[in-house]
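Q: What structure does this chain adopt?
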Amino acid sequence: QVQLVESGGGLVQAGGSLRLSCAASQRTRSSYTMGWFRQAPGKEREFVAAINWSGGSTYYADSVKGRFTISRDNAKDTVYLQMNSLKPEDTAVYYCAAKTRSIAVITTRYDYWGQGTQVTVSS
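A:
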């Protein structure tokens, strides 16, 4: 069982930056692909970014490509989401998730989820 805890959310003005962190309760370095998803009010949860176990492969949703960067520190069992040039439409609860094997963009492919952290971007 992997427990995930997100942090780093908050309120920021449009054009600003935030860095989200997701700490895992056990070693994820050798086994788990990590992903970030988000869910805005009244909308379905959507894929944002994912990174494979080694950090050598990443994948982004088109809506965040060039603005967000996913990374991981396997020594700390932590994954990050650096968010730059934030827009009001980025406002959502952001969730960290973990799965074995390869990167996936579908929520049902992920086995473990954090509780989420709120990101609010004001215009």
